[in-house]
């Protein structure tokens, strides 16, 4: 049987839950130094990555398998983390997503600089410049995790790693994939110092992604869906590659384009 929770909340007007709702805003998250992780699967990935929550809010009535999942609550509590039981009605009021599964955790903010990245020789990196949609950034993290990308770098990001839609879109892989945020100038200098080639994805080139050499240390760069990569990023790239398009549009969703080129790099590097 689960041990007694530290606190039980039944009203969405409770100050603790109001503070939780306030963390949807980036400024509030930055000031508090926390990231909100919602969902049992996402929490599991964070825990597996060694993340120690500050607080875990849970609602047994919403759990898909309370008998099993309450054991995770017990394990988290046993590690010294504050656990707060929340009634179903109150939890549904404060949950970010529709159809919550009864888990919301506050964890230390995902913050990393380029200097914090520990890379192998000849790394495969994904560089995302100016992405405005957190769901795209999250989807790219899922691709990076699946493909074994060594790090994802957000260049001049519009969103932050702790955005709930980034965490949700990544299915929690924001905690399993090394990440960093930096300006374009900082990133270009860091890549040059590490001898890592920048490969720009753009429709304005004749070189197909399958014809480019994507072995060795490379950083595959994707830009926004509306404008693509900036002129400076394109000028600084050692290579420009395009994905063949046979329809009426000349570009793909940013996360889809990233996945196609990343997996071509994985194919080449596995031969």
Q: How would you summarize this macromolecular structure in one to three sentences?
A:
With 271 residues, this protein is of the alpha/beta class.
Q: Can you offer a commentary on this structure?
A:
- By secondary structure, the chain is an alpha/beta fold.
- It has 10 helices and 11 strands.
- The chain has helices at 15-22, 26-32, 40-48, 66-78, 88-94, 134-147, 164-169, 184-193, 231-236, 254-269, and strands at residues 7-9, 34-38, 55-58, 82-86, 103-108, 124-129, 151-155, 179-182, 197-201, 218-222, 239-241.
- The chain has a 6-stranded parallel β-sheet, sandwiched between helices. Strands 1-4-3-5-2 form a 5-stranded mixed β-sheet.
- Helix 4 (66-78) links the parallel strand 3 and strand 4.
- Helix 6 runs parallel beside helix 10.
- The model has no long low-confidence stretch (mean pLDDT 93).
Shape, per Cα inertia axes: elongated
Instruction: Quickly give the structural class.
Output: alpha/beta
SSE arrangement, N to C: EHHEHEHEHEEHEHEHEEHEH
Question: How much helicity do the residues have?
Answer: 25-40%
> How many beta-strand runs?
11
Q: Going across the biggest sheet, name each strand in turn.
A: 8-7-6-10-9-11
Please report which band the strand proportion falls in: under 5%, 5-15%, 15-25%, 25-35%, 35-45% or over 45%. 15-25%
Low-confidence blocks of residues: none
Report the span from N to C terminus. 52 Å
Mean pLDDT across all amino acids: 93
Q: Please compute the radius of gyration using only Cα atoms.
A: 21 Å
Count of individual helical segments: 10
Largest sheet: 6 strands, parallel
């Amino acid at each position: 049987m689960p041990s007694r929770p530290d606190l039980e909340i039944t009203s969405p007007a409770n100050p603790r839950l109001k503070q939780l709702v306030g963390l949807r805003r980036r400024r509030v998250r930055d000031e508090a130094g926390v990231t909100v992780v919602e969902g049992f699967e996402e929490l599991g990935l964070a825990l597996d990555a060694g993340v120690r929550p500050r607080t875990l809010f849970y609602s047994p009535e919403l759990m898909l398998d309370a008998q099993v999942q309450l054991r995770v609550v017990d394990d988290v509590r046993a590690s010294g983390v504050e656990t707060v039981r929340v009634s179903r009605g109150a939890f549904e009021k404060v949950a970010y997503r529709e159809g919550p599964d009864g888990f919301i955790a506050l964890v230390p903010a995902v913050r990393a600089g380029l200097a914090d990245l520990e890379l192998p020789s000849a790394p495969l990196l994904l560089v995302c410049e100016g992405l405005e949609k957190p769901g795209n950034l999250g989807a790219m993290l899922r691709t990076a995790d699946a493909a074994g990308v060594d790090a994802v770098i957000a260049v001049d990001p519009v969103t932050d790693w702790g955005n709930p839609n980034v965490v949700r879109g990544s299915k929690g892989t924001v905690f399993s994939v090394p990440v960093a945020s930096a300006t374009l100038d900082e990133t270009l200098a860091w890549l040059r110092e590490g001898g890592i080639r920048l490969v720009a994805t753009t429709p304005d080139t004749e070189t197909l992604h399958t014809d480019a050499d994507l072995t060795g240390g490379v950083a595959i760069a994707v830009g926004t869906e509306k404008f693509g990569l900036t002129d400076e990023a394109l000028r600084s790239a050692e290579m420009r590659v395009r994905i063949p398009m046979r329809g009426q549009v000349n570009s793909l969703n940013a996360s889809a384009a990233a996945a196609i080129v990343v997996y071509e790099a994985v194919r080449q590097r596995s031969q």
